[in-house]
Design brief:
By secondary structure, this protein is α/β, with parallel strands linked by helices. The protein contains eleven helices and 16 strands. Strand 2 and strand 3 form a beta hairpin. Pfam families: Amidohydro_3.
């Protein structure tokens, strides 16, 4: 196999090293300046090196990235957004492999080499969105790894047949099934959660559920999920997305919930939306809870915002949580990279020997500098392949 060496780079801002890649794997890391006979050597110019970013919460199936501008419309509520999307998506070619591939390429350009994405499953499109995302991933020949969540955007119980679609998706190999606001959308939290956990137990897949409710209603939903996770034995297989209530609860109530989340391996993903309550992320980290960052939907019928750059989400997270010290920024950078490993079922995701060769070089002094400025990616290596240079794709 071709040996490639990315020389003179500073992992996490440390001393310069040379990173040797064989195939898709980091094979060796040595102090900078060693000879590397018969290897392709690429000068890293002492740039900051980070592991590839992991986008732990995306919706790549329904973006209009690269298409003519689409104006925001519809009623500005969850129900209104769902209805508007159902009315408009077909005219904008949603879902389609080509549109999804454009989103994944933009992720790669910004250094994201793996993503967990929710993909709409409903009575109108069936499992077509899943097929489109799988085709888009295949076109990129392993450059970006995609893990799927079959997502019932239009509700689970209120539409007869949606549970059957989720069951089919799980039977056909989708890694996770999703849920959505069991109180507000289906207005029957017991039926929704019982149905989801029954499918997950049957197929051994994970559950990744959107929860937007605040305050005690949100806490009630958490308690139902805790109870079902404990009874089902799905430890380490349940993730809460958004979970805004967690940042709104009194400290004692929150601590009680965090202890149970940690015990059951219930993880969390956030897109750090402006105006939301900060998460108790320090306590989450100290308790061993998984926490990942994601872009959510970008340039879709829900929002005209977003560019696929996870560093910008990291900056939003840092601002929301009042990060000031270099150590805080380092932890945020880890959420964007190594902390996302569990959402892709990776044992290791870091700049270490034996890991998949996902490497991002930035002209930055350290992680804090990279997050605050979000400079162009000087080099992006994905599974051992150079996929972007100086902010532009080369694949």
């Amino acid at each position: 196999m071709q040996r490639t060496v990315i020389s003179q780079v500073r992992p996490w801002g440390g001393e310069p090293v040379d990173i040797e890649i064989v195939g898709e794997t980091i094979s060796r890391i040595t102090p900078a300046g060693h000879d590397h006979p018969e290897a392709l050597v690429i000068d890293g110019h002492e740039h900051l090196a980070l592991p590839g970013f992991i986008n732990a919460h995306a919706h790549v199936d329904k973006s209009w990235w690269g298409q003519p501008w689409v104006s925001y419309g519809g009623e500005a509520s969850t129900q209104g957004r769902i209805a508007h999307e159902r009315e408009e998506r077909e005219k904008h070619g949603i879902p389609a492999a080509g549109a999804t591939e454009r989103v994944l390429r933009e992720f790669l350009r910004h250094g994201t080499t793996a993503t967990r994405t929710h993909v709409d499953v409903d009575l109108g499109i069936g499992l077509d969105g899943i097929a489109a995302v799988r085709e888009a991933e295949a076109r990129l020949e392993g450059a970006i790894e995609v893990e799927l969540v079959a997502f019932p955007q239009d509700g689970v119980i209120r539409r007869d047949g949606v549970l059957d679609l989720l069951d089919r998706a799980a039977a056909e190999g989708v890694e996770n099934i999703g849920g959505l606001d069991p109180c507000a959308i289906d207005r029957d939290p017991v039926a929704q959660l019982d149905g989801l956990f029954r499918i997950a137990e049957k197929h051994g897949c994970g559950i990744d559920i959107h929860l937007h409710a605040g305050g005690e209603l949100g806490a009630f939903e958490y308690e139902l999920i805790i109870d079902r996770t404990r009874r089902s034995g799905l430890h380490g297989k349940v993730n809460v997305a958004h979970g805004f209530a967690l940042g709104q609860l009194p400290e004692a109530r929150r601590a009680e919930l965090l202890a149970q989340f940690s015990e059951l391996g219930i993880s969390w993903t956030t897109v750090a939306p402006i105006g939301s309550a900060p998460l108790p992320w320090t306590q989450m980290r100290e308790s061993g809870m998984g926490l990942g960052l994601g872009t959510d939907g970008i340039r879709d019928l829900w929002s005209p915002y977003g560019d696929g750059d996870l560093l910008r989400v990291a900056l939003d997270f840092a601002r929301l949580h009042r990060a000031r010290y270099d150590e805080d920024f380092l932890h945020v950078a880890q959420l964007s990279t190594t902390g996302g490993a569990e959402f892709m079922h990776r044992v290791t995701h870091d700049l270490v020997e034996g890991a998949r060769a996902d490497i991002v070089l930035l002209d930055a002094q350290n992680a804090a500098d990279a997050i605050v400025r979000a400079p162009a990616r000087e080099l992006v290596v994905a599974a051992g392949r150079i996929v972007a240079e100086r902010g532009q794709l080369v694949i």
